[in-house]
Amino acid sequence: MFKRSLSISALAVSAAFNLPAMAHEEVTFAYIEEPPFATTINGQPAGSDVDVARAVLARMGIKNVEVKKVEFAELLPGVASGKWTMNTGLFVTPERCRMVAYSNPIWALVDGMIVRAGNPKRVSSYASVAKSDARLGVVKGTVQVATAKAAGVPVERIVEFGAQEEIIAAIKAGRVDAYSNSALGQRALLTSLKDSDLALAQPFEPPTDSNGRAKAGFGAYSFNQANGAFVARFNAELAKYLGSDEHRALLAKYGFVADEITPALTARSDALCK
Q: Can you name the CATH fold of 25-108+216-272?
């Protein structure tokens, strides 16, 4: 009887002050198998994007977080249609902004490529791929497709796959010569694979901006556009967390360096969406 009365009183107080019952909020977080951002370790989801999201959600008072593994092609349509609450970090582009709402950025990354050991096609940049007969593997729908085209890689030599596991198999089989993704992701993938048949393309020159500096892409969590109030709350706690000692220590554990963290601290997705 006492417990029931206490529960009713708590609800009345919450209603009177229009306070959300955050302890009972549930969030479904969708991810793909892509270390170090998100991966499955001993049957459990982990990774930088997973851990940062959990930390920020906890600061919002949200403890009930379901983590759901999906395919890359499902991420944006899934969150846009309300199948889940938020996605693992994805590069922010104006095109994607028309489909989803983004948090503010959580990382800033340049591209890198994985090749066969010995780099037989001498891949050193997107331009080098364009000038050779090398075939470039990319995950369908990623920003690297547009980057390759902008660098002059012919469409017929850009081979799109559903997942990075398929591209790795294609490199090893000689069906493609390089795989383009974020340099951080490529480092982490090779570390996890421990495959002597594969290597980073080094040295590698990522695309540059108008000042000749390596051009970083900014990644952020994405949400249904109808969840603006939730995104605003998330961004408020994200701003407090990003750049903290706890945050930097967490990302260092996953192989991030300062240049992959610091630029994101002042970037805003509303500006990147224009």
A: D-Maltodextrin-Binding Protein; domain 2 (3.40.190)
In whole angstroms, give the CA distance from residue 256 to residue 258: 7
Report the Cα–Cα distance between both ends of the chain, in Å, rounded: 57
Residue 190, beta-bridge partner list: none
Q: Which residue has the tokens 């690297």?
A: 144
- 187-200 pLDDT, tens digit each: 999 999 999 999 99
Q: pLDDT of 40-54, one tens digit each?
A: 888 899 999 999 999
Domain layout of the chain by residue ranges: 25-108+216-272, 111-200
DSSP the chain: -HHHHHHHHHHHHHHHTT---GGG-EEEEEE-SBTTTBEEETTEEESHHHHHHHHHHHHTT--EEEEEE--HHHHHHHHHTTSSSEEEEEE--HHHHTT-EE-S--EEE-EEEEEETT-TT---BHHHHHHSS--EEEETTSHHHHHHHHTT--GGGEEEESSHHHHHHHHHHTS-SEEEEEHHHHHHHHHHH--TTEEE-SS-B--B-TTSSB-PEEEEEEE-TT-HHHHHHHHHHHHHHTTSHHHHHHHHHTT--GGGTGGGGT--HHHHT-
Q: What is the CATH number of domain 111-200?
A: 3.40.190.10
Quote the pTM value.
Answer: 0.88
| Model confidence pLDDT, tens digit, residues 171-188 | 999 999 999 999 999 999
CA-based radius of gyration for the chain: 21
What tokens appear for 26 in the block? 């549930």
